[in-house]
């Protein structure tokens, strides 16, 4: 599927690697230890030292991504699936990754800031040019957003995890994809399957995620866990969530408010703290810069290493 994608950018084995987080249990998470606070624009809103270190240079992570090749010979690329609520910044993250590589702002994955509904309608695979004749050895799949009483069907995302959704399939609000439907891949290979699942939400909207959307995200994550697929979280729009970060992006891992949101999101979905990352997508910028790039490359490297561990465990 992805190998023949026109968009440049179920296996039966379900053993679970020892490093995979335990399956999510359907219980109400206890958030009492996470006080609700607004991100205040004062000196008390920042820690004196960052609670997570950021590389001083992008070169090491960029070199790693450029040189990456899957060791598993059954796959030609690592497949990363993005999912989350409408407007979370999934397509924006794909564009931001491409912008890092191209050294200029790109907008291949179309986004919409006004409609309030999912702008992504098709199951689209994105490859990224390394040079004129070759691509990076990972791809992204974008999905229609989750939303209240609408959006992509959870069962369609589960089918995508198993490689049953073909490139270009148009998601339908009225009809879940079924076997023998056009767009159903009845014989997926390991190359077609998803190797990393990434949950994307805006950093300032963690507390306002609806119970229905959270339930859908947990259900997708549980299916991924049963398949042994590693999962990561991406919290976007950090500059909109915290004034101190909007003023200086280097404050991102000093922000007390953003740390609370990462902890809260970890509890809500059950994704380990060290598998959740804060990023800023390119949206208003007209040029790339190192402060944004370092966050994107750090998250991307963790996606790749997690996926590589999964492929090597099969």
Give the gist of this structure.
The protein has 314 residues and is of the alpha/beta class. The chain has helices at 59-67, 90-102, 154-161, 211-226, 238-241, 243-247, 256-269, 290-313, and strands at residues 78-83, 124-126, 129-131, 134-135, 138-142, 146-147, 150-151, 196-202, 231-236, 276-278. It is globular, with a radius of gyration of 19 Å.
Structure write-up:
This protein has 314 residues and is an alpha/beta fold. The protein is 30% helix and 12% strand. It contains 8 helices and 10 strands. A hairpin with a 2-residue loop joins strand 6 (146-147) and strand 7 (150-151). The chain is globular and about 60 Å long. The model is unreliable at 1-7, 9-37 and 112-119 (pLDDT under 50).
Figure out the total of helices.
8
- The class by helix and strand makeup works out as alpha/beta
Largest sheet: 6 strands, mixed
Report the average pLDDT across residues. Answer: 85
Major sheet strand order: 2-5-1-8-9-10
Gap from first CA to last CA: 20 Å
Tell me the helix content: 25-40%
Helix and strand pattern: HEHEEEEEEHEHEHHHEH
Low confidence ranges: 1-7, 9-37, 112-119
Instruction: Tell me the strand percentage band.
Output: 5-15%
Radius of gyration: 19 Å
Shape: globular
- Tally of strands: 10
């Amino acid at each position: 599927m992805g190998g023949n994608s026109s968009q440049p950018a179920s296996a039966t084995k379900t053993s679970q690697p020892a490093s995979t987080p335990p399956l999510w249990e359907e219980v109400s998470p206890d958030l009492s230890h996470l006080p609700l606070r607004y991100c205040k624009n004062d000196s008390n809103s920042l820690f004196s030292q960052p609670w997570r270190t950021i590389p001083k240079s992008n070169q090491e992570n960029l070199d790693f991504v450029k040189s990456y090749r899957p060791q598993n010979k059954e796959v030609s690329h690592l497949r990363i699936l993005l999912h989350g609520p409408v407007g979370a910044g999934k397509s924006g993250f794909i564009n931001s990754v491409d912008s890092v590589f191209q050294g200029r702002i790109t907008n291949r994955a179309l986004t919409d800031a006004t409609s309030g509904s999912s702008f992504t309608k098709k199951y689209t695979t994105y490859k990224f040019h390394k040079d004129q004749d070759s691509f990076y050895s990972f791809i992204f799949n974008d999905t229609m957003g989750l939303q209240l009483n609408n959006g992509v069907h959870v069962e369609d995302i589960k089918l995508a995890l198993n490689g049953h959704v073909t490139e270009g399939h148009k998601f339908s609000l009225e009809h879940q994809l079924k076997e023998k439907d056009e767009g159903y891949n009845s014989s997926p290979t390991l190359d077609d399957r998803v190797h990393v699942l990434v949950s994307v939400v805006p950093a300032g909207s963690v507390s306002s995620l609806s119970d229905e959307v959270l339930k859908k995200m947990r259900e997708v994550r549980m299916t991924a866990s049963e398949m042994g697929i590693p999962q990561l979280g991406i919290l976007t729009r950090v500059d909109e969530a915290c004034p101190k970060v909007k003023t200086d992006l280097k404050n991102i891992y000093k922000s007390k408010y953003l740390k609370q949101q990462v902890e809260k999101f970890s509890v809500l979905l059950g994704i380990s703290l060290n598998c959740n990352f804060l990023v800023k997508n390119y949206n208003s910028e007209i040029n790339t810069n190192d402060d944004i790039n370092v966050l994107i490359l750090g998250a991307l490297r963790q996606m790749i290493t997690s996926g590589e561990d999964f492929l090597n465990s099969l």
